[in-house]
Amino acid sequence: MAWLPQEDREFLKASAGLGNFQKAEVAWLDRKRYKYTDVDVSTWLFDRGSAKQIAFEGAVVDERGKPCICSWPGKYGSAWDCMVQAAEGGKISAAVVFLPKGTTEFGKHAEIPPQEKLEGDCWCIPLYGEQKPWGCRWWSRWIANIEEAHRFGAEFQVYFFENMKGKGKVRSFETAGKEHLRREEICNRMEKFRETDVYKNVAASLSNLSRDPCADGSSPYSRRVDQEFMSWLPPEDREFLEASEGLGNSQKAEVAWLDRKGYKFTPKDVSEWLGVKAL
Questions:
Q1: Which of 26, 190, 260, 275 gets the highest tally of CB atoms within 10 A of its CB?
Q2: Model confidence over 216-239: pLDDT tens digits?
Q3: Residue 268 pairs with which residues in a beta bridge?
């Protein structure tokens, strides 16, 4: 771009924002006078959530001392599928639970037993700081699996993000909900960031980066946008999010619960599963 004549350089910069076919599509809508809403593609790229699709209620193997997967980072969708297939085939023991939309218990809640002495009408409160649309019935299932595995003397295993083993834990189970709310509030500022000149300049210069998702659901484009967003944040908030990397949102509560119960676990790197093919 730098060596191009200024007129050509300005023309290419002004063209950034739509693909070649898109330019004709949008021009046609304008020609037909069909109204449409402008939407930034990063609304899909930053909110990557869980990519896993296979519902799973756990499969704990009754074998003394057998390793048991008790926490899994949901954004590694294909690796999750492989792990679930291995667990359902009896090859491994797994206490993890995923009840996605479409399952009978999605959106349902579970009361906190009085003996736990925790605040909240349901488990959503200590987990997320507020009730969530997906509910917390999965949590009561997970606890039951954990207790079953503990009775069997299982070796608990927690899988962390790739190359981030041991990182991303919350201070305690009692602070998990408040910390979750703070992460959400900070991440929701992405909308405000998209309105800044910083973001607009970056977006225009990154049009050639791939949007194809990697194993963790991110892409070269989304990772660069995330980096710019993190740089834009105040240092205190940026450091908080950086310290949170390593475990998924629900995982943070799972690991904090294991610590609360005094259950030891072996930290594992999810990269051990990234090269595994589905059965």
A1: 190
A2: 888 888 899 999 999 999 999 999
A3: 159
